[in-house]
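**User:** I keep going back and forth on a fold encoding question. It is easy to fool oneself when nobody else works the same problem. Could you pick a protein and write out its sequence and tokenised fold? Could you put it straight underneath, so I can go through it closely?

**Assistant:**
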Amino acid sequence: MTREWWNNYANRFELVISGLVLREISQGDSETAQKRRELVSTIRVLKVSEESLTLSRQLVETEALPPAAARDALHIALAACHQIQYLVSWNFKHIVNPTKQQLIAKVCQKASYQPVIICTPEELV
């Protein structure tokens, strides 16, 4: 599904990633990691800001996400602080989780950010 989305639907959106994503896709088999980096080489990279760090801490402190998911909280905070409409993920444990999404939305709204629509690539087809 992910390949199908990249090949057939990604061009319908303005894609952005974060430095976190760049680090994540650089892990594993070096040849495969290089292919992933090439795939995203022209995509705008969101910068971590003080406000995104603050929001990510709030997501953990309010228990919208557990401390072990601090990196996931930063993904969400970056999207919210940069006013990104969709956050696409396959992380069902902490990100694409309906219960967590409600809590995440409340924290974002309380901090005066528009909640991000969190979904899988399949949901954007």
In short: The longest strand covers residues 16-18.
